[in-house]
Amino acid sequence: MSQQYRIQVNSDIYALAKLQEWFQQFQDLLPKQTWMQCNLVLVEVFTNVVSYAHEELSEETPIDIQVTIHIPENFLELRVWDYGEPFDIQTEIERAAKEAHKNRDFESYDDIPTGGRGLMIAQIIADDIRYEVTDDGRNCFVMIKKFAALA
Fold first, then answer.
1. Assigned domain for 106 exists
2. Which residues pair with 128 in a beta bridge?
3. Any idea what DSSP says for residue 85?
4. How far apart are CA 44 and CA 38, in angstroms?
5. Is the Cα torsion angle 22, 71, 146, 48 positive or negative in sign?
6. Sequential pLDDT tens for the chain (151 residues)
7. Domains in the chain: how many in total?
8. Omega before 86 cis (within 30°)?
9. Any long-range contacts for 114-122 (C-beta under 8 Å, 24+ apart)?
């Protein structure tokens, strides 16, 4: 059984409050650590879309977000669609990681320099991430996160 949830917000950093309020509903459906990790990835990816992918676009440009919780398989799938220029997610993560290690080693998320940090965080947290170009001309960030069954 899968439970699917969707929201659409504008490309406005102030829409993050609405997005965070919406994501609260998953607290009781996921283990606390999984919820916190997925929330962090959602914030980072949303911020990247607003700051980079949609930087030259109107604030009214929609960002579609979908969360699917798969039970009894115990994994969450997060999808975030944008209208930015497509890119190779693995190449960007590798570039950001090299830059981070060139400057200094990091021990926590806060130590990772900006500019690719969101993707590096997503890779650390996720069991799988990918970036797909869709038939309708959008891009879709996809993250899979497995979790332990709730007692």
1. yes
2. 144
3. -
4. 10
5. negative
6. 899 999 999 999 999 999 999 999 999 999 999 999 999 999 999 999 999 999 999 999 999 999 999 999 999 999 999 999 998 888 888 887 777 666 555 565 555 555 567 888 899 999 999 999 999 999 999 999 999 988 7
7. 1
8. no
9. 116/92, 117/44, 118/41, 118/44, 118/45, 118/47, 118/48, 119/44, 119/48, 119/89, 119/92, 119/93, 120/93, 120/96, 121/40, 121/41, 121/44, 122/41, 122/44, 122/45
The alpha carbon of 67 is separated from its chain's Cα centroid by a whole number of angstroms, namely: 10
In-domain check, residue 44: yes
Contact partners, residue 60, CB within 8 Å, separation at least 6 = 10, 11
Per the structure block, which two tokens stand in for 137? 């001309």
> Would residue 151 count as lying in a domain?
no
Question: Could you tell me the residue range of the domain that residue 59 belongs to?
Answer: 2-146
Q: pTM for this structure?
A: 0.88
